[in-house]
Each structure stands twice: as structure tokens, then as C-alpha cells.
Amino acid sequence: MASYPAYDSIRRIGVLGTGTIGASWATYFLAHGFEVDAWDPGEGWRERLIAFIDNAWPAMEALGLAPGADKTAIRFHDNPGDAVAQAGFVQENAPEKLDVKRDLYRRIDNTLPSQAILSSSTSGLIMSAMQDGFASAGRFVVGHPFNPPHLIPLVEVVAGKDTDPAAVDWSIGFYNHIGKHAIRINKEVPGHLANRLQAALWREAVLAVKDGLASVEDVNAAVAQGPGLRWALMGPHMIMNLAGGKGGYRQMIDHFSPGIAEWWETMTENPRITPELADSLIAGVAEEAGERSIDDLEEERDERLIRLLTMLKETAR
Amino acid sequence: MASYPAYDSIRRIGVLGTGTIGASWATYFLAHGFEVDAWDPGEGWRERLIAFIDNAWPAMEALGLAPGADKTAIRFHDNPGDAVAQAGFVQENAPEKLDVKRDLYRRIDNTLPSQAILSSSTSGLIMSAMQDGFASAGRFVVGHPFNPPHLIPLVEVVAGKDTDPAAVDWSIGFYNHIGKHAIRINKEVPGHLANRLQAALWREAVLAVKDGLASVEDVNAAVAQGPGLRWALMGPHMIMNLAGGKGGYRQMIDHFSPGIAEWWETMTENPRITPELADSLIAGVAEEAGERSIDDLEEERDERLIRLLTMLKETAR
Q: Which chain A residues touch B185 with a CB distance below 8 Å?
């Protein structure tokens, strides 16, 4: 078992790939007082990264900056090996292609410091395949964030077959140390956990439109005006605990789960998203959005998200 | 097509059955300035109803009372026929048993005013079976709330086979008029829509524990610290619209839905909730709850829900 650095000793974080996810991570690390060592292969990436951070910084100010946080504390590197060489921790956000990730790992395998962990934002790939054969493989973990990472606390941490178990523990602790909410995913499955939960809900939401049960706008409201309000406050098991009244989760399971199991039997179809179904989904959100552009909707979401996160922090017990 | 009263002319609302759901509805109607005509067959129901309203009233004050709202504007009736006789609208909250509902409908069928609509809070029954054969059947709809109805805006409105389509339109309009968010469910299916969406998520959350993917507490966090934060702000289709970046929902469907469809293929199991699985679900929430009782957790949820609803109202565009 390798020994890993004390959390407080980490000053510099490598950020590999600065598209939407990488730029959002960089913003988060800067706001929490770290220096960022960034690298991206794209043309004009420095300017885009700076613009992203400038745009997101007011949100980070609203949520509270760490002492000494400096949005300009970025070093721009010409190759990934240099970006990780001085890093205490690395967040990798390369495109979701196995060969692209492995090419990148090949370029950093020799310069990654011997105590530094590399955490991949991958949502769809499997670490065991990504890490296979690299000298530093034991220090590679998945650290999958939720979009946008600079606002949403969740990080899913997953080990590959060659990952040192202590590297997983260290990563969970480190993410929590810097204000994220890290969870431990014990197996490598497609989509990890949170995206699978989201996919389960989306499947039923697609079926509801396909089957003519309700309009796209009404399906959206069926979540956002109903159970979605509770899901921001507690997860599905804790909600069922309260659905059981004074008898708690056992009461809920005894009284309601047989009925729900019957519904489940009617919820087994995997819809095919035909061009016609796609058109009606797209038309439905367009109708609901009305005059609001994607930018307007994003701005509205993020404004509310910041207020929601602030409220949750203020009411934490 | 019958003609229904102007919304502003409604002054008195019948509330049949004053258990948790009925009492919560009564609270909502009182807070919105209506008089309530209540009936329940249970011993001691008047005292319990008054206690519920007293307990919930501060929440209604925090969310804003209608002018003239009076928490004592309740008439207690000894039989259901009297409770509906002067009502402009009736919310029925009898136990979830078809024969119990039909016995109750038999007792009010003759006294329900000719313009008044009866809306059933049923979550599990089908209106076509409930209404069959009654003189007033054309004015019976499902108006399914989400717990707790005095806080959560969603109401799912569903017609039975004998329901006048205009009664559905009127009911949706009336609920919206009094501050709820009503949606139209076009077919009678078990669980309507929102509970099916919730059941789809819960199924995957149960499987994650059964399969050892993550702990109960981490599954809860996978929602509440991640996608759940967005579901309080917008529904699943609008979220996918924003997941597509500038290209919107079409971009999301083109780029991500094939991958999600592959996950769906791995998400087809209906878990059996064995005693062992039930024990581990229950132990998991107990561990997460720690010292907090069900009452504490409910209080925490409702305090946060009130602040969340207030924030959403303040930021509505």
C-alpha cells in the first residue's frame, strides 16, 4: 500500500482536458484555493478556459470562496506530462474514448508524482480497461462528477482492477475535504450509479410520452412539482422511510411495496427512440421553453441551484 | 356537457376522509380562504383534524395565507351526504379500497350539488371502476396529490370512462386557480404518472443495494447530492434538453441516447424484496438517520421544503 499525502499538503491540481467538465472542475479547484496546472490539446483552449472561469466565478463567490482563492492561479502547459509533474492530485477530463484516454495516460505515466492520484471524470468507461498496463495504474480512480461540477456536490469514486484500495479511500476523503460529496461505488458497471438512477427515471419519462400518458411539459411537472422537490432534500430510500409514517421504512415495505412491485411488472419496456418520438420530445420541451434560449434556461437553472445549495447549507443539521 | 361554476364562486369545499391526506388537503383549502365541510367515520377525528391543522398552520403562514384565511372555518358533519350538500367542490380521501370508496359514493350521490365536482385523492385505484353506476359519475375525477398535499404543488387529474371531459378541464383549472400545479393524465394506469416515475427510480435504488453497488446512504446521496438537486428545478425532459449543450434535446438524443439505451438493457430486473433485503434497506436508513427520529426527519424535510418552495416562487420567470 502506497502512502498518500496529507490533504492539507496539496497545493497544485492538474486538470487534463478543459472542455465543459474540465473547465468546471478547474473553476471549482481555484475557488477552493488551489493552483491549477491545466492542459488541453484544443486550439484556443486557454482563452476558452479563462472565459469559462470568468463566467462561473460570480457563482463561486456566491457560494463562498476559500481564503486566498485566485481565479488567475492557473499554469497553462503545452503537454500533459508537464501539467501533472508538480501536481498533488490530477483530475482527468479527456474525451470519452478508451484509446484517447489511454494515449493520454501513456503521456503522463512517467511524470505523475509517486504519491499523486489521477482521478478520471469518465461517465461511460471502465477504469479496469483504462488503467491496464500503466506503471501508475494503482493510483488511477474514477472520480465522476455531475454536471456542472463547480455547482453539484456529487462525485462517484470507483476503483479499477489494479487500483490500490487505499487510493479510493484517499480520494473519497480528499473530495469531501474540499467540499464535494463523494460516494463509493463498489463495482464497475456502465453509468456508475447516479446516471443509472437518472436513466431509470428518464426511461419512464420517455415511455409516458410515447404511450400518450401525458405531455412532455406535464411529465416534467410530474417530477419538478412533485417528487423532485423531495429528491433535492433526501434520497429515494430516506423518502420511503418517511412514506411509512411513524412505522418508517419497514411499514412502507410491508404496506406499499407489494403494490409497487405490481407496477414494476408493467414497467419493463425499453423504448426505442424513433425519429418520430424524438421529434415529439423535442417539440415538447420547445413548447415549454417558449421564448427562453438554452442559455436562458441554463442561467435560470444555475441561479436557482446556487440558492438551493445555499439553503441546504444553511439548514444542515 | 354540464356547466360548471365560476372558480371565484366556490366558497365551501367538502373534505371526505380526514386521515393524513384529507387533513392536509383541509389545511390547504383553509389557508387559501375556503370554508371546509369535513366528514370522517373515525373515532376522535375532529380533534385529530384540528391538531393537524394547528400543527401545519405555521407552514401555511410562511408560504402566505389568502386574505381572510381562517383555520377554524370548518364544519364537522356526522355523515358524508351533509358534508357535500353545500359544497362547490369535494376532495375525497377515503381508504384505498374500492368497496369503501363505492360505499361512500353511494352515500353522497344524491346530495352532491348538480354543478359540484368530486375529486378523489386515490393513488392506486381506477376511476372507471370507482364511478361505475352512480348518477353523479360524470362529475367524478381523480385529483391525486403528492404527500404532503399542503406543501407539494402537484395534482394529477385523471378521468374515468364516465367522466365528462369538461369536468377534467374544470378541475385542472380550479386546482391551478387555487395555487396547485395540476397536470392531465390521459390514461388510467396503475400509479398514474408521478408515482410510476418515483417507482422507476426506487427500483434502481433497491437494485443498487441488492447488488452491492453502493450503501443505502450512498445511494441516497447519489440522488440528493446529484441529479435530485436538478429535479427540484426542472423535469427529466428539460434536464436532457440542457444535457445536450447548445444543441439542446436533439443533440442529447443523437449523442447520448444510444449509450443510455445500452444501460437500459442492463436495467430490466424487478427485485424481490426479501426479508434480508428489507433488513439491509431498513438498517441503511437507520444508520443514516442516526439520532434523528421520524418526527425530526419530517420536520427537517418540511422546513427545507418551505424554503425551497419560497425560493422557487421568488425566482419564477
A: 213-214, 218
% of chain B exceeding 70 in pLDDT: 99
ipTM above 0.95, yes or no: yes
* Smallest Cα distance from B47 to chain A, Å: 19
Residue A274 has pLDDT above 80, yes or no: yes
CATH 3.40.50.720 fits B195-314, yes or no: no
CB-CB: which of B218, B242, B259 is closest to A294?
A: B242
Architecture of the domain made up of B7-185: 3-Layer(aba) Sandwich (3.40)
Which CATH class, in words, describes the domain spanning A194-314? mainly alpha
Cα(A155)–Cα(B278) distance, rounded to whole angstroms? 27
- Return phi, psi of residue B11, to 5°: -120, -35
Dihedral sign from CA coordinates of B238, B241, B242, B243: positive
CATH 1.10.1040.10 residue ranges in chain B?
A: 195-314
Asked if B226 lies within 8 A of A202 by C-beta distance, the reply is no
Which ranges of chain B have pLDDT less than 70? 1-2
- The pLDDT score that the predictor gives to residue A3 is 84
Residues of chain A with CATH 1.10.1040.10: 194-314
The closest alpha carbon to A127, from A101, A107, A151, A103, belongs to: A101
Residue type, A8: D
pLDDT of residue B298: 92
- Which of B147, B153, B301 faces A225 most closely, judged by CB atoms? B153
Confidence of residue A317 (pLDDT cuts 50, 70, 90): confident
